[in-house]
Amino acid sequence: MTAVSTIQPTFTHRAEYAALRGAVAAMERLSFRSAGALGERIGRLGYWPLGIRRAVVERQLSAALPERSPEDIERIARETYAQLGRTSVETAILPAYNAAEIVSLFEDVQGWSIVEERLARGKGLILVTGHLGNWELGGAYLAARGVPIDVVARHMANPLFDRYLTRTRQQIGMEVVHDEEAVRRVPRSLRSGRAVAFLVDQGAVGLASTWVPFFGRYAKTPRGPAVFALRLDAPIVFGAAVRRPSGRYQLTFEPIDVAPSGHREADVDRIVADYTTTLERWVRRTPEQYFWHHRRWKHQRPGTPPELGDPLR
Q: How many helices (H) and strands (E) would you count in the chain?
């Protein structure tokens, strides 16, 4: 059973949800490309004139990419809003697509043999990714290819949004495991040969984490995938679904080394650092497609030097 948020919806929650459902109903009549283009236009409004978290996005970009000019930072920031709008709309309409249609949204898939080989070991498969490109579409691709997959997710603030997103993921073939269920359910899923996907680029209070470099600054990063891999001898694969100029996507899989050295804590830290470094490499390739709106370096250990901590402080 999937855990349900116990937060009671307010009038504001209900109004937001009604607006969402109305917008989704209208956009489901559009083609995937047209719906995404509409999402881009809506997303750009967040940058200007609304300016939602604009300072957060621009300051984090400047800290992560100090070699870029102010004009380039502004351009990238503007495009991140368009990308977020597109991703949100594409995710919302995915339940209207069948498996063959979802697969057709990708123009190139690299490393699929890695996924097949790791699954064939019979230990399950841990998939790690970040808020890059269209991460939900990447998960949908695996489900469409017949991979039994769970996704570990946090509850959203709006309980109606939370339930809607859970249903959406289930409709496209993904089973949702909320954070508070992960310790119990993830081992069961891996032992039964399922894939379990984690987003590994948001630290949260109460979430088992470690601090590793991300663009040269210490970022609080979930350690669950590394702990599960070592405890259950499960392989880890990093995946990235990034949008190409054609409007379709490229999906790439890379293995993460989880060979134990006999020093458990050091191994966990190494694995967390490895998948974070892999994500950073992908973000550098296409920073416009990353979710810079989240304060990635907000949570810091006491005593962290300012130059290695949160650029917004």
A: 11, 9
